[in-house]
Structures are given as C-alpha cells and as structure tokens.
Write a structure and sequence with these properties.
The complex is a heterodimer of chains A (317) and B (386). With 317 residues, chain A is of the alpha/beta class. Chain A contains 11 helices and 14 strands. In chain A, the strands form 3 sheets. Chain A has a 6-stranded mixed β-sheet with strand order 6-7-8-3-9-10, sandwiched between helices. In chain A, strands 2-1-4-5 form a 4-stranded antiparallel β-sheet, with helices on one face. In chain A, 43% of the residues are buried. By secondary structure, chain B is mainly alpha-helical. Chain B folds into 2 domains: 237 residues, no CATH class; 124 residues, D-Maltodextrin-Binding Protein, domain 2, CATH 3.40.190. In chain B, strands 2-1-3-4 form a 4-stranded mixed β-sheet, with helices on both faces. Classes of the chains: A alpha/beta (317), B mainly alpha (386). The interface between A and B is medium-sized, with 34 and 28 residues.
C-alpha cells in the first residue's frame, strides 16, 4: 500500500504515563475499506492508540496521519471525516434518542436540513425508529449501545472508530451491532474496531493487530495470524477410560505437536495436515477402547496470543 | 454554536436539579417569606401612647397645651401619636396606670409647666419618649412666644408670626430618605435572588462539564467535534446563561406580581440587574465546571455561606452583614452574592444610579475574572487524558 493511500498511518508512536509505556514504538497503516481490528487484553494500549489518533492525548513520539494529512488537535477538517463510538455510552440523559443523535451530528454538520436527513438515516440504520422520542433512561443496555453507535456515525464519516462497542451487551444486540458495522463497511466506511473479544474481531476484521503491553504482537489477516503458530488443528476425543500408553502412541504420530489427557478427554494439538483426525481415530480404535464425542477445531486467535505471549487474551495485562 | 446553545438549553430545562434550585426554590422560599412577613408591616406602624390628662384648672390655664395634645391625638392628626384619656385627679391617673389603662399621665403645675409621669412598666419604651419630645417642643415654643411678646410685641399683631410658631410647635413630619418607601422584607427577597443565582452556577458547572474532555463521557465525545472547541464551549455558556437568566426572571416576576415586592421604578434596569447577576453566576459555574476538583455540593455549600453575608437568614445575619460592610467594606463587596443583592437594593432605594452601576460593574469585573480563570482551566484540560 502506498503511504498516501492509507486512511490511517501511525509511525513509531510512543506514549508514556510516567514510567509506564502505554504504547511502545507502534506503527501501522490502514487502507481504505478495511475493517481493522485492534485485539488485546485490557490495558494492552488499544484505547490509548485511539485517543492518540483522535488527538485527545499528547504522545511522546511518533507521527499520525489521517487521510494522508498530519493529524493535530485543530485538524477540524479531518475530524469531520471521522466518527467515534466510545467504549462508554456517552449520550445526554435529558435528550431524546432523536435529539441526542441530532446534537452529536450537529458537531460535524451545521446545515439543519441535511442533518435531518442524516439523523433519519442513522435512526433507521440502528433500528431505533419506534423509540426515537424516548429518553435514554428508558432504553435497555443493547438499545443504548445502538444509540451510542448512531451518535457516532450519523454524519456519515469515512473513518469509523469503534472502541469496544459490545461490552456488556446481550448476544442478540451484539449480533445486530456487528451486522451494522459490516453494513457500514460495505457502504464504504473504513473501520477501526478494538475489542478483547477474539470471536468478534475474527468475524468482522479483514486485518487484525494483536497487541500486548503497548506493543504489536502480530498483524495480518485471521488466517495469516493463525499461520504464525504451529498449531493447525486441535482435536479432542472423549475416551471411556484413560490409557497412558494411548497418549504416548498418539503423541508419536506425525503432525502431532502435543497430546494430553484432561479427565477422560484426550486433547491433541496438531500441525496442519490433511489426515490428522483419521490418524488419531485409527490409533484410538486400535486400542479397542472405543471413543465417545470427537471434536476438531481450527486454532483461535486466543491460541495465537497464547503461543506468542504465553498468556491468555482475557488475562489481565 | 446555535446547536450547542440548543443542546445546553434542552438538557438544562429538563434537568430536575435546575428546576428545583433555580425555579422552585426561590418561588417556594418567596411564598414562605410572604407568609412569615405578613405581620412585619404592623411592627412599623406609628407608636401610640395612651396618655392620661388631668384636666384641672392648671391644665386649662396652660396656654396652647390643649391644642398641642389635640394635634397629636385628634382624628385629624397626621400620625396619631397619643390617645388621650381625660381624668379628674392624679389619684385616678395612678389607678389607671396601675390598671394598665394608660401608659403615662400629664399634670400641669401652678406655673403652667406640664409634667409627664410614666408608668413603671413603660420606662425606656418609645411612646413616652415621643410624648416627652412633644412636651419639650411645646415648652420651647411657648417660651419663644412669651419672649417675642415681651420684646417685639408688634410681631404678634398681625398673627402671622404666631401662626408660624404654631406651625412649628408640635407636628410630626414623615421624612423619606429613600426613593421608595422602606420595605423591611425586600432585603430578604433580594438576598434570595442572589442565592438563586449562586445555586444556578452549580447547574452551569454541570453543563460545562458536558463540554469538557475530562468532565464526562459526553464531554469527551463532544471534544472530538469537527468544529473548534471554543464554539461548543461558548454555545454551552450562552445556553446556560439564557436558562439562568430566564429562571431568575421568573422568580423575580413571581416576587413582584404575587408577593408584591418592590423593585424600584425601572423594569429595564431590573432586567439589567438580572442579566448581570446571571452572567456572574454563569462565569462562576464555568470556572467550577472547567475542572473536576470542585463538586456541586461544594458550590451549593459556598452559596449558602455567602448568603449569610447578604442577610438572608434573618436579623442576626443582617446585623452581621451590616457590621462587615461597616468595618470591612472591601470584604463585604468581594462577595458576589452581596453585589447581586445590592444591585436590586440600589434600584429600590437610591435616587442616583451610581450604587447600581457600581455593583453592576463590580459583578461584570468578577465575571471577567471567573471567565478568564475558567478559560485557563479549560485550556489546561484541552488535550489531557480522558
């Protein structure tokens, strides 16, 4: 990607809070139309990066360009092209759904007539038409999150930054929110999505940066990231009784990286291979013990994070 | 900016705290004051003395005395200072005084000099003192007439000099040192208006916090706007000022129309006083809301404390306020609530606009200082962390 084409370009960003380094020499580029995921445990520096991009924070070192231009606290032209959905629901309790969206949209669009159309579209987009005259106190957590999103996207920004928008949201609302984000992307918006939910990031993002302690751990598509680690497949076999010799035989198979018994379940980590499951079941069958449920899973981003950092994604940083 | 004004006005007028502290509070307090002060005017009625008069031969011989007493007790008297009770003897008078029927009684000695005898229970009270002054005046005038008759009798021939003496002899004159009639309760209402403005600054602070990156989640979000932050802040301040002004105006109208409080003869200047007071309140609120170290409870506490020095809490607090103003005027004048209260006070009582203008200018200067400090605090937070 040519530098000038990037919607967001961060070069060697460093942000320190006293002796603690929140972002440590981080660089990234986001191309137009991407859904870029920032994935990392709490405290890994995701929100700090967002705040630096938005110039809410001064940073110690580095450069940030948006739409090919340097970003500064007074770059209002650039800010008009950005929409932000903060982690915390940030709406006026005293304004109705419609008034809230209009109020935040007015921070970017001064013309009332255009704004009315934009607000209507945003209400329609998040499905709050029937409750547009309600005050936020009457809304459920999921509906509040939708309102929060509508306030950030009503002015039709080219770059949308969503900072953990599904925290504390029920599964149904979460699906609606994720579908909405994909629709925004299909309509042409570039999206930066931060989360510590790997499933969401995997589902939404065309490219993912895994972060830990303010540093980039890995960056690429979901498949590229999974390809970085040795595990290609994780197979679990439920056994009627445990057999230490069986574990040794399975571990000796080609493509098997590790095998262990957890209760009555045999867990086997394999490298990528075409016949891993068949090979393992053959060995198990040869013992004459039989087997119960069998599960074969591809590696997750958590496996990637675990293998690279030695910690779980949802551990505290 | 118009949108920021609209957002601020909408969010404040729907805020129950605003309605309670800047609208309901002054109206409820005014109603309570109205009930409390309904009997206050009675204490400002002229003091009347029940005066026993022993109408013996000496009394009849005392020239002009009967006319003097008639002037202060008759139905035609401007201020009825005495209610005379004719008595036959001093014994009757003593009995009436002991019975509480009269406060004092008058005897005239052989030389024609009136003597005032005050009942023991009335010693040191105001009404006998007034009678004493009346009799002193009578004696002084009588001596003057006698002197003129002896030395320049021609002056008395045409009667004009005598009429002049009579006119000066005994009379009560209502002197009004102020533009409007004194209203003992007005000070309470003006202090209440000032307190309302003080409480309003709490709400302005809330509105400002919603425009500050570190003030609230909404403030952080608004600071990402595609318009300069000063426009959002200015719109918020103007909206909050408008709300505060309207609330004060409603409270003031209630006091004027329902309670009957006088505000002087110029409604336009009363509006100016309200505008300036609400602006000052807005400036203070901007300062408090510009940071995160001042809690709303601290603002209301400070308002209650400063109201003490405007005389809101009764005669003791008024004496304290007056004492501070007399001994440490700079300290009294540094109290913005005192200046607000004084704006209305000056309009009601002073003939000249000078005290009103001085208070207004002082409030404007204070507002400028608070706005400058607020700007410094807000600037410092501009790009600080969320």
């Amino acid at each position: 990607m040519h530098e000038a084409d990037a919607i967001v370009r961060i070069d060697n960003l460093v942000k320190r809070y006293g002796s603690m380094t929140a972002v440590d020499h981080l660089s990234l580029e986001i191309a137009p139309g991407e859904v870029f995921g920032l994935l990392g445990p709490n405290g890994s520096g995701k929100t700090t990066i967002i705040n630096c991009i938005l110039q809410l924070l001064r940073y110690d070192h580095g450069e940030i360009d948006l739409f090919g231009q340097p970003m500064s606290p007074t770059s209002y032209e650039l800010k008009r092209r950005v929409g932000v959905v903060p982690q915390e629901v940030a709406v006026f309790d005293e304004l109705t759904v419609r008034e809230n969206i209009d109020s935040f949209c007015a921070l970017y669009v001064s013309d009332r007539r255009s704004r009315r159309t934009l607000v209507d579209e945003a209400i329609e987009f998040v499905g709050l038409r029937k409750i547009e005259r309600f005050f936020p106190k009457r809304l459920s957590g999921g509906l509040l999150r939708r309102l929060n999103i509508a306030c950030g996207i009503a002015h039709k920004p080219e770059l949308i930054i969503l900072d953990e928008p599904t925290v504390a949201v029920d599964p149904q609302s979460r699906n609606a929110i994720l579908d909405g984000i994909l629709r925004l992307n299909h309509e042409g918006a570039t999206v930066i999505y931060t989360s510590h939910y790997m499933e969401e990031v995997e589902r939404l993002c065309s490219r993912i940066m895994i972060m830990d302690r303010g540093r980039e751990v890995a960056c690429g598509t979901s498949d590229e990231l999974k390809g970085l680690i040795g595990t290609g497949e994780r197979i679990s076999v439920e056994l009627p009784q445990t057999d230490a010799a069986l574990v040794e035989r399975v571990a000796a198979l080609p493509h098997v990286r590790a095998a262990e018994l957890e209760g009555s379940v045999l867990h086997v980590d394999c490298t990528a291979g075409a016949h891993n499951l068949a090979d393992i079941l053959t060995v198990v069958g040869e013992t004459g013990l039989g087997y119960g449920r069998v599960l074969s899973e591809p590696p997750t981003l958590n496996d990637v994070f675990l293998e690279i950092t030695g910690r779980e994604l949802r551990d505290e940083a | 900016m118009l949108s920021s004004i609209r957002t601020c006005v909408l969010s404040l007028v729907r805020d129950r705290a605003l309605l309670v502290w800047t609208l309901l509070f002054p109206i409820i307090m005014s109603s309570i004051f109205m009930a409390m002060f309904s009997t206050l005017d009675e204490s400002y009625a002229p003091v009347t003395c029940n005066l026993g008069v022993i109408e013996d031969a000496n009394y009849d011989a005392a020239q002009g005395l009967d006319a003097t007493l008639d002037a202060i007790s008759g139905s035609s008297a401007q201020e009825r200072l005495a209610r005379t009770v004719p008595l036959d003897s001093e014994e009757d008078a003593i009995a009436a005084a002991n019975a509480g029927d009269i406060d004092a009684y008058l005897t005239v000695d052989a030389a024609g000099t009136p003597q005032l005898h005050v009942a023991a229970r009335m010693n040191g009270r105001l009404s006998p003192e007034i009678m004493r002054a009346v009799l002193d005046s009578y004696l002084h005038t009588r001596e003057a007439v006698v002197t003129v008759a002896a030395e320049r009798p021609t002056l008395l021939e045409d009667g004009s000099a005598l009429a002049a003496f009579r006119s000066d002899a005994v009379q009560t004159v209502r002197l009004q040192a102020t533009k409007s009639a004194p209203d003992p309760s007005a000070r309470y209402y003006f202090s209440l208006l000032a307190m309302t403005a003080g409480m309003g600054s709490m709400l302005v602070g809330y509105a400002i916090r919603n425009a500050q990156p570190k003030g609230s989640a909404v403030g952080a979000r608004r600071s990402l706007a595609g318009v300069p932050r000063w426009r959002v802040l200015l719109g918020t301040i103007l909206g909050a000022w408008a709300c505060q002004f309207v609330c004060m105006l409603v409270a003031l109208t209630f006091m004027w129309v329902v309670v009957g409080v006088g505000f002087g003869g110029s409604p336009a200047l009363v509006v100016v006083a309200t505008l300036v007071s609400s602006l000052m309140s807005c400036a203070a609120g901007s300062f408090f809301g510009g940071g995160t170290s001042v809690e709303p409870g601290m603002v209301s506490g400070a308002t209650c404390l400063l109201s003490l020095f405007t005389g809101l809490y009764g005669t003791a607090s008024q004496r304290l306020a007056d004492g501070i103003e007399a001994t440490l005027p700079a300290l009294a004048h540094a109290n913005p609530l005192w200046q607000m209260s004084n704006c209305f006070y000056a309009l009601l009582y002073y003939d000249t606009l000078e005290p009103f203008v001085t208070s207004c200018l002082t409030l404007l200067a204070m507002a400028a200082i608070f706005f400058s400090l607020a700007a410094l605090r807000m600037r410092r937070l501009s790009h600080d962390q969320l």
